[in-house]
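Comment thread on ticket #2218

A.B. wrote:
> Attaching the input chain for the structure job we discussed in standup.
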Amino acid sequence: MSTSTVITNIATLVTNDPSLGDGSPLGVVRDAAVVIEGDRVVWTGDSSKAPATDNRVDADGRAALPGFVDSHSHLVFAGDRTEEFNARMSGRGYTAGGIRTTVAATRAAGDEELEANLTRYLSEALHQGTTTFETKSGYGLTVADEARALRIAAAHTDEVTYLGAHIVSPDYADDPAAYVALVTGEMLDACAPHARWIDVFCEKGAFDGDQARAILTAGKAKGLHPRIHANQLSHGPGVQLAVELDAASADHCTHLTDADVDALANSRTVATLLPGAEFSTRAKWPNARRLLDAGVTVALSTDCNPGSSFTSSVPFCIALAVRDMGMTPDEAVWSSTAGGAAALRRDDVGRLTPGAHADLTLLDAPSHVHLAYRPGVPLVSGVWKRGVRVV
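C.D. wrote:
> Ran it. Output below, let me know if you need it in another format.
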């Protein structure tokens, strides 16, 4: 039989249920408690009204919020790109070509090395409050290497994305059409059993709109749902294609027209913003304020990868979004929890209400606002994942 635990004396509890507490989108309850039974939340409310439980944890006036949902990362890789970063910070512009460096290192690595790297970055993220994460392939670009990347990832998360269409494989540099045929054929057949999603980097230097449509459509036919790297380095067809294909998310969304914003606002597609990439490349910041004011659902994620955003810290991305992208602290917290869940089409994570997974982050601070107010400070003092305290 499962035991029950109450976490009580929470100064401010973010539930992401606007029917609770202060009535805001965050549904903030003050002087709150959460009751966990097994791997689920079974009660939230005023601390004084909490039911009796088997165990009791005193939050001692700390803030609690749902575990972060990082809906965009690239964690199955080997090597790093320190030299590229150093050069870029010394004045050289970023291009997508650096991915080839990671492809070579990843192909040369054994399965044990790739899995050790993955678990290292997951541990980093967990200690910073991330309890749900999506991750992609995309650094193998052969049938065998893409399939093994997804197989390794699937041992650690249900949110696995096939990204054979990260760039055109160096092996097919002179015949991109043949590589698209491989990605939509033999490679897709090998990878689909290990993945939930399919993604494509729709960008100059990677895949154009017609190629991206063909790749995502082939994935849908195999039961994989689309997501897309869209409009990161320049304006392109990615956002419109995402809406056309009912993609769960269009990720990056830096270079947008009014028509792109309107399309997102009138769709189920989430705009996932990845400020770590702009920070690490000195690129133009996405305009979150424009998207939010138009009614677009926005997610906030790390894009953790060795080339353009080598951070596993959602709190860091929250601080960037508030400082440089026009988001309020409340909006940034919502986007990194409930927004990330929406980008994964999940309603069992990203909130702390009865029936949700008991994924909870405790801060050594009285309010979630401190995530942006005290950037760079390790505020996470406790993490519960599926009802078990893991930090």
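A.B. wrote:
> Thanks. Noting for the ticket: The CA atoms of residues 100 and 170 lie 7 Å apart.
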